[in-house]
Amino acid sequence: MNPIQLFDAESSTYTYILAAANGEAAIIDPVDRHCERDLAHLRRLGLRLAYALETHAHADHVTSSGRLRELTGARACAPSGCGIAPAEVQLEDGDVVRFGGEEVRVLHTPGHTAGSVSFLWRTNLFTGDTLLIDGCGRTDFQGGSAGDLYDSVRDKLFALPDETRVWPGHDYRGQSVSTIGWEKRNNARLAGRSRDDFIALMAALDLPQPKMIDVALPANRRLGLVHTV
Length: 229
Description:
Mito_Persulfide_Diox, six-stranded mixed β-sheet, Metallo-B-lactamas, metal-binding, MBL fold metallo-hydrolase, metal ion binding
């Protein structure tokens, strides 16, 4: 089965469900306001949620990983460098998350935030905010670094086979999927650009703070829960 791609129009966030042949599943970057929607998809397909995976501590929406864990018994997985202490699985570069005979490989891809990761499942790459379709995530908060993001994309993501499908954490222009080969040749921020040029480009963006950062960031460090044990 291909990844199931779900969208939150308010934050332009993509959530993904990965399904194994035995009915176990993992979800990537779920959004709190869509918890019931995501549970309905799992029920409709006869899937049992084994893992809720976070690519980083989000600043523009609140995760539902904690709530999904409570409702399904799934285990929450978060990058070790993101300060999400309630997640029982703290992910490191090279880790493999296994469910139902499937494997999700963890790639530490810092730059958008210091702890950001991407996930590789089969020939599908879930890039969070590190690599977007024809773009990339901002690098000006949460320990972000334009130089680190450039290195993450060039040295880790662009080193993958060209046919690897790129599933981003966000899209603002109605796009849903790309490939590593297309991004290497065409990405407006990264293709053909030197590291120094990229750093200068990102420094000149002068973006406003995400509207929800003061609410979302502390909530997401608690897996979206008001209280944690």
